[in-house]
Amino acid sequence: MNVDRITEKLNILADAAKYDVSCASSGSKRKNENKGLGNASNGICHSYTEDGRCVSLLKILLTNHCIFDCAYCVSRKTNDIKRAAFTVQEVVDLTINFYRRNYIEGLFLSSGIFKDADYTMERLVRIAKKLRTEHNFNGYIHLKSIPGASDELMNEAGLYADRLSVNLEMPTEAGLKLLAPDKNQADMIKPMGYLKNAIIQRTEEKRLFKKAPIFAPAGQSTQVIIGATPENDSQVLRSANYFYKNFNLKRVYYSGYVPVLADSRLPALNTSVPMVRENRLYQADWLMRFYGFKVNEIVNDAQPHLDLDIDPKLSWAIRTMQVFPIDINKADLQLILRVPGIGLLSAQKIVSARIFGKLNWDQLKKIGVAINRAKYFITCNSNEFERRDLTGNNIKQFILATSQSKYLKNTQVQLNLF
Amino acid sequence: MTTLIYDGTFEGLLTAVFDVYDRKLGMVSLQKTGVNNSALFEDRLQVITDETRANRVLKGLKQKISSMGIQRLYAAHLAEMDGEENSLMGYIRYAFDAGQNIEEDYGNRFVMRVSEMVRMVRREKHRMEAFIRFQKLKDETFYATIEPDFNVLPLLIRHFKSRYADQKWIIYDIRRNYGIYYDLHDTQYISLDFANVNKPGDVIAAFTEDEGIYQHLWKNYFTSVNIPSRKNTKLHVRHIPKRYWKHLTEKI
């Protein structure tokens, strides 16, 4: 093994893959059979980069040679950078040896497009196949669906991979046309649609015949870049909602645009990464998937952007004061989930615990409720509760004044001047 | 108030529960042997760990709480936190005395405290599953050392046994000086004698040749995937507290 050459390739191809934010290794249920290597179930983050993102998979490109010229992408054809390509065996060796040392949960393999879609997809599938069949590897494999790849290859990919994803890149077709003239959304949606139907059909088969092979057990995901084009949060979230509903996606990832290239169509190179906005979008995404919120409760024409200074649940609550206060000892789980300061686990604990006796503030605090936020919206087994008739805006100011959110530091410093 | 002195084992704890009911004790305080802070006027009682009695308590407990509940109690016990045996004792007595299953009564302070301890222990277990770094030895065994906050090694066996079924491995807790060894068939507890290893060269010679290469590649990978313009040290350290760094290949 030529260590220097491999090191160089790994540096180039890991660096080029890092803007893909998906790192999930959960949601699969692949067992270790016949004393093979590995399994995949709940997902583990084995390390964290200095920017605080999880490192769960060996995330690399097979190659950064690419025939496309997408403005936002470091690997675009016209960008003058070092190019490299792994051989099939090199990727297999790296994956197995990293896995055996407990560095990773598995492989995340993406690629630049060389020659055409099928040619590229075929290489990705070949690596997954080799890992599964020759090395009895049961760890997690995430493959990119290459836009425009044939149904036959997508079918084979589904047999070996745990998750497949195709990146929509831009929330709207117009944004895509602007920055990635070689791509079109129809090509991206095609493999997504094929896999959606195949997953439904295979799950049905699996229910009837235990022996039926598992097919992409961790489903599909996608990613959209935020802040490279002028879409508002309403457009972003509506588009996410559309793909959750129509393609049964497991996750939509939001990637704050990191300026890497100078291009008149893009934000300037010194623009900061929209990390707060990205964070708020994820919070809104969670509200849609786990908290029973509809997309138009979070964003709508009157409210096209998410508040940056408060989270979207609090933002919804202060716009919808007529619902509150609710009695924590009587309200439905669905309503408790909507209270700012109460998370999924706390809500479930409350509902379990109140069967034994009415809960008071102390107990709620112990259970994990953030009382400083929740207290404006609930009553419990206590004489103390918010008696003032506060407007949503009052509450927002009270909460901001006592909050230590890192996003608020700048504004607070400014206020202190006066 | 009676102070019960027990040996710190789970059986010991269950035997203590037996004694509480056997002697119809009211207020009790549980202490591990060796922790000697006795008050002047108190009854002290030595609990003699007894498997039969412990099993009777366990059997009775199974009537009152689910098998998941028993596992959670065991996990909380592994936290080995001083003074917290009283929470476990309180939980078990509450479970016996109540007319119904109390596992989800989070309004009760014992149930809540045990739930907190379980969360702490499970988080440590999960961290170990993530942060263990094996090094390949010449005889094809993969070796890792750990220093977990809680005694979670027994909880790790199932995960690593099902994951690394085709390689021999050792996970060694150097703080508590014992480990698990998997020999491709079964796992056993072992204890190693490091006294004879005195030259650092001996240690390096024990690894396979490609061990250094893969460590080097992994460190390179770790640096390559970082996005400097998103640097967030606070978040980084929250996810990987510094006390774990010395065993992490990429952070050494």
List keywords for this structure.
heterodimer, A: alpha/beta, six-stranded parallel sheet, two-stranded antiparallel ribbon, B: alpha/beta, three-stranded parallel sheet, 8 strands
Describe the model.
The complex is a heterodimer of chains A (418) and B (252). Helices cover 41% and strands 9% of the residues of chain A. Chain A has 418 residues and is of the alpha/beta class. Chain B has 252 residues and is α/β, with parallel strands linked by helices. Chain B has 2 domains: 122 residues, no CATH class; 120 residues, no CATH class. In chain B, 46% of the residues lie in helices and 15% in strands. Chain B has a 5-stranded mixed beta sheet, covered by helices on one side. The longest helix of chain B has 23 residues. The model of chain B has no long low-confidence stretch (mean pLDDT 91). The chains are: A alpha/beta (418), B alpha/beta (252). Chains A and B meet through α1, β1, β2, α2 and α12 of A and α5, β4, α8 and α9 of B.
